[in-house]
Amino acid sequence: MTACTHLSHVLITQHPESVGGCVDCLAAGDPWLHLRICLECGKVDCCDSSPNRHASAHARSSGHPLIRSLEPGEDWSWCFVDDIALLISNVRGQTRIPPSPLGRAHSLPLRD
Ligand SMILES: [Zn+2]
Ligand SMILES: [Zn+2]
Ligand SMILES: [Zn+2]
Mean per-residue pLDDT for 49-56? Predict the structure, then answer.
């Protein structure tokens, strides 16, 4: 079993109270699906299911290996170097996030 050796990169110990969305998508006027936060610098980015995949792009360009999901009820983190999910329990707080601009389209088939 592979273990992540990048926990010293976790510099964020408290999640923000609320965020406005993926900062890069907001700047470009693009939609995102799910939000992730970089645990090294606190940058909020979008997931790999989003059109722009800003979280993995940020990990590549900055060398920051670890992100955590900001989705409600999700507490997993991901290491882009080891390609594994892990739980990092010493980051506190629950972040309020806006609904995904793509969420409405995705839930359309389930609407009555
Ligand atoms: Zn790692
Ligand atoms: Zn984005
Ligand atoms: Zn970062």
Answer: 97
54: CA distance to ligand 1 center in Å? 19
Q: Which residue, among 42, 52, 35, 43, has the nearest Cα to 13 in the 3D structure?
A: 42
Mean pLDDT calculated for residue range 95-105: 85
pLDDT digits (tens, 9 = 90+) for 57-85: 999 999 999 999 999 999 999 999 999 99
4 CA distance to ligand 1 centroid (A)? 4
Give the helix/strand (H/E) hosting 86.
strand 84-87
Q: How far is the CA of 3 from the centre of ligand 1 (A)?
A: 7
Closest CA to 80 of 62, 66, 91, 101: 66
Distance 69 CA to ligand 3 centre (A): 14
Q: Is 46 helix (H, G, I), strand (E, B) or coil?
A: strand
